[in-house]
Amino acid sequence: MIVYLRLAFGTIVVLLPGLAVARALGRRSVSAVVAWALASAFVAWAVVFVVHSNIKLAVLVLAAITIGALIVGRRRRREHDELRAPGWVIAFGVVLGWFLWHVAAVIVGDGLFHEARVRKLLALGDLHLRTVDEFKDGGLHPGYAFPLWHGVLALIGWFSGVDAGLVVKYAPALLAPIACAVTWEAAVAIFRSRAAGVAFLAATLAVFCFGAGHGGAFAVLSLPATATRQMLVPAALAIFFTAHTRAGRATLAAIFGAVALTHPTYALFLLIPLLVVLRWEWRSWLVAAVPTGLVLLWLKPIVDETISHNPRAGELRRGLVQYQDQLVIDGPHHFRVAPEVFGRTGAVGVASLILLPLVALAIPRRWSIFALGGSLLVLLLGSVPWLFVHFSDAVGLSQSRRAMGFAPLPFVFVGALALAARRVWVVPLALVAGIVLQRLWPGDFDYGLRHGGPAAATWIGLVGGAAALALAYALRRRPLPERWGLGAAAAVAFTLPVFVHALWHWSPAQKEDRFGLSQRLVHNLRTKVPKGAIVLAPIVTSYRVAAVAPVYIVAAPVTHVAATNANRPYERARDVHHWVLTKDPRVAKRYGATWQIRAGRLSRIN
What we know:
Blueprint: H1 2-24, H2 30-51, H3 55-75, H4 87-101, H5 110-123, H6 148-160, H7 164-191, H8 194-210, H9 224-240, H10 246-262, H11 264-274, H12 278-304, H13 313-322, E1 327-331, E2 334-337, H14 347-355, H15 366-383, H16 385-395, H17 397-400, H18 409-420, H19 426-440, H20 455-475, H21 484-504, H22 519-527, E3 534-536, H23 539-548, E4 552-553, H24 569-582, H25 585-591, E5 595-598, E6 601-604
Helix pairs in contact: 1-2, 1-3, 1-6, 1-7, 2-3, 2-6, 2-9, 2-10, 4-7, 5-6, 5-23, 6-7, 7-8, 7-9, 8-18, 8-21, 9-10, 10-11, 10-12, 11-12, 14-18, 14-19, 14-20, 15-16, 15-18, 15-20, 18-21, 19-21
């Protein structure tokens, strides 16, 4: 409980600059607070990196931003912000956070990489962009070249006085209320209905929290990719559809800049379905595209060094082999996303694809254009080989697959049920349908694709949706009125089996790390090894060494290293493997290592 309260305090303090700036601009939504909190953190860390200082300077800059915003806000007339999550949504998120606290799993995989970066920001001085890398002589990671989200977690750790490992492990419990609030606000901004906000929150939690079990993506909200997808993307949508003033557009630029810096490709992926609403929101789209383009332009030299960008034949074959279960491959330059991928998110995803043609009954309303047109655009991008191959060449195959998750299918689910719910009996029918689909297609959330969703549902959505859209414009009939309240009841009833199944099996996804370091070794690394030293150890051990102590390593698992010319992940792995077998001292000398770990024991290299 003490750790929870300390983390809660740290999270609130980190949000204070965002709250002050948002209120000074007349924006009172949680989405605006998130946008300006991240913008403030960016300014603070940019100053630190420019002058090569430490986290204390970032704290001072945040304090200055907060005080300045409070002074300006007292003199500014407040604008009306039509969007703000009610208290019950935040309270629900707090309760959800308590549940997530109990399924916090041991940090493994990508979490170790991110914990290492947070720890360096907390512990090291003379900080610059390359300080947080895993290798002393390596290069920037194209996805995290500016460690914005890591900086936010480091600030939470500094204000709360909690170790970086505990921040990464338990922060999701404190971030859950924010995720729930911005999700609700995104739906209200698009549907203009508070009842639709309830339905969309239920659908989102069913897909991303409860459907996968063990807390799903919400249990790892502290990781940049998940935080971007579950918090920053909904916040960006909420702001995008309400940015009708100068303050709103400034907030929109701030949130898209934050998305682009936290996970660059996600900002690009989000702009794709938003293309269909250019008729109404072309100004907002351009405002969102500017910071996204600037960040991508800054990253271009780093991206050009990666072997996954415009890959050679050998690397392309490796990618096709690695992701072959998620693709339909007819040749090295003719492949597309497997139709089973689109329905892999379980009952809600399958139902959304089947209901997609129904959304055409609301044409030409803005929400229906976004839900139907945006979904069709993403489905076409993944299903037409020529489009998907060229898109993969531009962003990399590992990222192009993720773009499929940006089809606005949860919005389809909410809107379609509001159109279909003409009578009360639809609610029990939705419950029965939810039970059936949960039994047949509970979801495929593991890495890779085992079975996915039904391919037929994807073709119903793509072909049926396109036909329904064409028919709607040809007939030009009056749109069918929505029944948001009844639709929300149907959505909650449909998702109820997903919630029950998840709560019945509520447990951590992984309770222990079988490759974890001993407490004695962790203590020695933190007390004997100087900060910023280079440690040579077997690859699996090295990955954990960098996470538990502010040091650099020689090599890490190649799947967790940016494949750039500076990092040379495969060459490093071969050198460390050679050292493990031969104890060749030239390996340590080549990489400047001054400490080594053998058989779990730490020693200085003479």
